[in-house]
Structures are given as structure tokens and as C-alpha cells.
């Protein structure tokens, strides 16, 4: 069963291998997302640290969140087209 969500945000930074892998995995599965680069929005890093995250990428998908490259979690996300029809 997939996670039904309205909005997915990936917090990333320049030259982050796991961030790029997460982005590519979501794109290949047709999952729509927004990206926030903490190199460009440094205050986002403080917010993530306050929430207990210590590693990038951080993915916020509705009520679900995780850090690092997590193919198992990405596979649970439904592409936007499937969510709309579900």
C-alpha cells in the first residue's frame, strides 16, 4: 500500500550524492516533489535540525518524513496521477 500525500518536499544541498539519488528515484517513479536547497535557504537547515534531522536529504511527504536515501520509503509513495485517481 502506498502513502497518499498531497505535497512532497526534498531538502537537499549542492554536491549531495544521496540527495541526487533520491531525486532521480522519485523522478523515475513519476512522483512529483518540490526541492529546497539549504545552500540557498540556510534557515531551512536550522528548522530541520530543530526537528531532529542530522542528515540530508530530508523528505517530508505529508505526515511521513525520513532522511538519507531510502528506496524502501520512496517505493511507498504513489505517483501524483495514481493519487488523483485513487
Features:
alpha+beta; four-stranded mixed β-sheet; 4 helices
What Rg do the Cα atoms give? 13 Å
Oligomer: single chain
Regions with pLDDT < 50 over 5+ consecutive residues? Answer: 81-86
What is the residue-averaged pLDDT? 87
Quick one: overall form?
Answer: globular
Q: Tell me the fraction of residues in β-strands, as a range.
A: 15-25%
Q: What's the helix-strand series? A: EHEHEEHH
Walk across the major sheet and give the strand order.
2-1-3-4
Number of strands: 4
Helix-strand category = alpha+beta
Main beta sheet: 4 strands, mixed
Percent range for helical residues? Answer: 25-40%
- What is the straight-line distance between the termini? 12 Å
- Enumerate how many helices there are, as a single number: 4
Describe the protein in words.
This protein has 86 residues and is of the alpha+beta class. It is 35% helix and 20% strand. It has four helices and four strands; from the N terminus they run E-H-E-H-E-E-H-H. It has helices spanning 17-28, 43-50, 71-74, 80-85; strands at residues 8-12, 34-37, 58-61, 64-67. Strands 2-1-3-4 form a four-stranded mixed β-sheet, with helices on one face. Strand 1 (8-12), helix 1 (17-28) and strand 2 form a beta-alpha-beta unit. The radius of gyration is 13 Å and the shape is globular. The relative contact order is 0.29. The model is unreliable at 81-86 (pLDDT under 50).
Amino acid at each position: 500500500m502506498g502513502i497518499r500525500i498531497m505535497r512532497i518536499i526534498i531538502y537537499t544541498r549542492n554536491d549531495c550524492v544521496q540527495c541526487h539519488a533520491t531525486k532521480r528515484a522519485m523522478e523515475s517513479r513519476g512522483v512529483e516533489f518540490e526541492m529546497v536547497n539549504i545552500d540557498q535557504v540556510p534557515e531551512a537547515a536550522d528548522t530541520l535540525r530543530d526537528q531532529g534531522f542530522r542528515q540530508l536529504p530530508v523528505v517530508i511527504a505529508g505526515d511521513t518524513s525520513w532522511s538519507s536515501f531510502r528506496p524502501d520509503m520512496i517505493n511507498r509513495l504513489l505517483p501524483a496521477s495514481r493519487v488523483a485517481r485513487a
